[in-house]
Amino acid sequence: WDEAAKDGCFGREALAAIARAPGTWLGLVPAKLAATFDYAGAAGYYLHESNPEAFGAHAKFVLGGVETLYERATLLLALVGAARAAGPRRRARVAVAAAGAASLFVVHAWVGYVAFPLAALLRGRALWRGSALVPAATAVVLATAVTHAVFFGSGRYSLPVFPLLCGVAALAL
Disulfide: which of 45, 68, 79, 170 matches 97 by Cβ 3.0-4.6 Å? Predict the structure, then answer.
């Protein structure tokens, strides 16, 4: 079988499995979003894999911790910015952002990554006023979440959201 034939076969089998048990497939969404957003860890993983003697397991662990704290602090600032920005439905935005922010202090930060675009979208047309960075970040985080809720997740797939969230976090300051 060539690669295209395998992809077609796997696609048909996946659709048949989903049709047989859609609830089971939907039940996988939190795990897939957790795999995508809770911990990226790509830098430490690749440095360790490329040369375990130069970048040992402890260094990988420490870099992973620093990376996780940085990503969550950045998302926290982005959520604060989404909550306090001008626009309608401020109470709803604050509630969504607060729920997302609370998730940053537990294992499953993916809730915060889902909360960010929801809080931003609650601004309505006001989302399009000001910096283009906010709607761009909203679109990329939302597209990443939807894509990996449907298919499968891995930390490296969340990497494109971080530069945009850094910009939104800076705007929140």
Answer: 79
User: So what's the pLDDT on residue 156?
Assistant: 87
Q: Give the integer Cα–Cα distance in Å for 78 and 53.
A: 37
> What are all long-range contacts of 66-69, with beta carbons under 8 Å and residues at least 24 apart?
67/40, 67/41, 67/43, 68/39, 68/41
d(CA 116, CA 136): 12
| Residues belonging to the chain | 173
Is residue 31 within 8 A of residue 38, CB to CB? The reply is no
Q: Could you identify the residue written with the tokens 């906010």? A: 134
pTM of the predicted protein model? 0.88
pLDDT of 150 reads 92
Region class of 86: left (phi > 0), else alpha (psi between -120 and 50), else beta: beta
Q: Which two tokens stand for residue 91?
A: 């109470």
Rounded to whole angstroms, how far apart are CA atoms 101 and 95? 10
